[in-house]
Amino acid sequence: MSYKVARASEYLAITGGGIKDIKLAKSAWVLPWQSCTVFDVSPVNYTFEVQAMSSEKLPFVIPAVFTIGPRVDDPHALLLYAMLMSQHDKHSNHVNELVQGVIEGETRVLVASMTMEEVFKGTKEFKKEVFEKVQLELNQFGLVIYNANVKQLVDVPGHEYFSYLGQKTQMEAANQAKIDVAEAKMKGEVGAKERTGLTIQNAAKIDAESKIISTQRKGEGTKEEIKVKSEVQVFQNEKEALVAKADAALAIQKAALTKSSRVAEVEAAKAVAMREAELQTQVEKMNALTRTEKLKAEFLSKATVEYETKVQEANWELYNKQKKAEAVLYEKQKQAEATKAAADAAFYAKQREAEGIVAMANAQGTYIKTLLAAVSNDYSAMRDFLMINNGVYQDIAKTNAIAIKDLQPKISVWNQGGSDQGMAGGGGMKEIAGLYKMLPPVLDTVYEQTGMQPPAWIGTLRGADEPRQ
Q1: Which of 158, 181, 154 is nearest to 166 (CA)?
Q2: Has this prediction a pTM greater than 0.85?
Q3: Cα–Cα separations (whole angstroms), residue 376 to 368, 372, 389, 455
Q4: More confident site: 53 or 210
Q5: Among 63, 59, 64, 65, which residue's Cα sits nearest to residue 157?
Q6: Can you tell me the distance from the alpha carbon of 54 to that of 39, in angstroms, rounded to the nearest whole number?
Q7: In terms of Cα–Cα distance, which of 289, 285, 265 is closest to 277?
């Protein structure tokens, strides 16, 4: 920690912990975590030669001297200067180029809207306009113009406009003097001749011979007068020729100046645009650095409070989640136990069902083995018994009856002649004979539908040994 004291023309710019933005003071204690910069506020003279161009596209040079320094009577302006300019020496190229760029840019823009006559005649107003426009630009840097002095305008090398203008004025004055001398000489000679004529006239009254002499003198005077008029006319013609020649030279010079001024105007506009872009970039960088430091100081305390708050909230959420997880775990454990019990019960039921199926299969196997043993392992006899026992023949008959209901089946009827007569005496045998008459067509139908032959103890079908079509 140290105690800093600034000089009469200096200020202290202090930043760091405990200071919101920048603190300006003449003397102050500087803590270890703070930074202190000393900057001078005394004005500085800047001398420039601004190359400008009038609205007639005529280039010229404006020598100017500006006295510029920080605005010490405005705290806000002084704070801007401390933030943007204090780190640079006021005599450095950076500050010199910054001030020169602002002055040259505003001066060129102002001169481009004025004619040469307006610049010459309104020197005071021109100086005032330049002062005001440059001051507007310097306000953003906390600078103020203490004094501005615009010197005599100077020609640009290769463009001697002011020299030619002076020569033109001198030539016009010389020509006018010659004209005045000629007019005075003419008046003197004419007056002298008039006096001579009067003398001759008066002498003629005295002497007759003086008339002849007077006539001769008068003729000579007329000749002299014509001679003087001729000389005056020749002088006027020469003057007009010189004026025409000067006008032609001036027109050629104007054309060359117009061409050069257009090229210079384009170059100047591009240079101003590039310089403005560079200055704007530097200003944006400085503003960004200032805002960054300010945001760091503002958000540091906010971040600390938000961090502690988030930690407490996270602890509370963690506690709640742990309790919820314990409850969910207990519930899952109970559900797992219930699921396991249900699975054990289902397994036992399936096991009992499987045991029942095995027992049934064993019983059916025993049943089939018993049937085969009863028919001496005759598979056909066992199958016929099972079909008769399970009513398969009745089902086949019903199915065939339904299938041929709407058809015209071929019906075979066995009729043995004399049977009625031979059995007329026995009614019971007649029904048995009728039953035996029905068996052949039934067995024949079963054979045609299924390919199964009747048992050997019933009989053999006619054509059963032949291959079926």
Answers
A1: 154
A2: no
A3: 12, 6, 18, 14
A4: 53
A5: 59
A6: 40
A7: 285
Q: Which amino acid is at 368?
A: I
- 196 exposure class (CB count in 10 Å sphere: 0-12, 13-18, 19+): middle
Burial class for 145, CB neighbours closer than 10 Å (0-12, 13-18, 19+): buried
Query: Distance (Å, rounded) from C-alpha 23 to C-alpha 16?
Result: 10
Highest mean pLDDT among 101-115, 198-212, 246-260, 301-315: 246-260
CB 199 within 8 Å of CB 285? no
Sheet hosting strand 34-40, strand order edge to edge: 23-25, 10-16, 34-40
Asked if residues 85 and 286 have their Cβ atoms less than 8 Å apart, the reply is no
Render pLDDT for 135-158 as a digit per residue (tens, 0 to 9): 888 888 888 888 877 776 665 666
The alpha carbon of residue 74 and the mean position of all alpha carbons in its chain are separated, in whole angstroms, by: 39
> Rg of the chain over CA atoms, in angstroms?
69
How far is CA 282 from each of CA 67, 85, 96, 278, 288, rounded to the nearest angstrom? 23, 11, 14, 6, 10
Tokens of 291: 């805002």
Distance CA 102, CA 397 (A): 121
Residue 141: count of CB within 10 angstroms of its CB: 23
In Å, how far are 74, 132, 346, 373 from 144, measured between CA atoms?
10, 11, 98, 133
CB of 66 closer than 8 Å to CB of 103: yes
**Strand partners of residue 49:** 63
3 state SS of 156: strand
The residue type at 259: K
- Those residues whose C-beta lies under 8 Å from the C-beta of residue 232, and which sit 6 or more positions away, are 182, 186
Token pair in block for residue 141: 């840097």
Token pair 């090398």 in the structure block, residue: 157
